[in-house]
Amino acid sequence: MRHLYAGRKLNRTASHRKAMLSNLAVSILDKEQVVTTVAKAKEVRGRVERLITYGKGGTLHDIRLAARTVKDKAILDKLFKDIAPSYKEREGGYVRVLHMGERHGDNAEMAMIQLVGRSGEEKPKKKKKKAAAPKPSSSTPPVAAKTEEASGEKNAEEPVTEHTAQETQGEAKVSEKSETAETAQETSETKEAEKAEAAEGKKAESPKEKPEKPEDEKK
Fold first, then answer.
1. Average pLDDT of the chain to the nearest whole number
2. pTM value?
3. What value does the CA radius of gyration of the chain take, rounded to a whole number of Å?
4. CB-based contacts of 62: which residues, under 8 Å, 6+ apart?
């Protein structure tokens, strides 16, 4: 008979078990939720709640008792200044254990141990309700409502068509201006070429000037 045998051995020696549970308690205070086996979660739950009780006391003796388990000064400061004051109105029950099913491989029962009411706790997501379409009033008949909707659609489409028509007119004007500029350049180039050809033709038609003979040869 296993009477008066408190606690779980967890298949470890006393020193190994003590170190493992203290490290797990510190991780819970730091991360505020940890996934582990069900046996370890149930075993460490009492240690974490005792540490939070020390934090609520706040005396020097409580700090020294908590410092036996929590070696990290930053986490010890968080315990006494942040975690413990948030449970001032709660009398025990600071930790919850949530079963998560079996682990793949050895089928060990897994659980999530977390601090109650802290930021690390997963909050249920609220489903957003879709806005219902407005129902037509009973006073107006359905045919009139349909005609109003059709007229509204036409009015909504009109500014779009006007805008597109303005854009097409602007593009046509720009294309016409570019074409007229190109034609003007071509005509000016052809005129200059004709002038140059005419000047060359005149030079070719003009007779060559004969050199004048001296007066002695004339006599």
1. 80
2. 0.54
3. 49
4. 54, 55
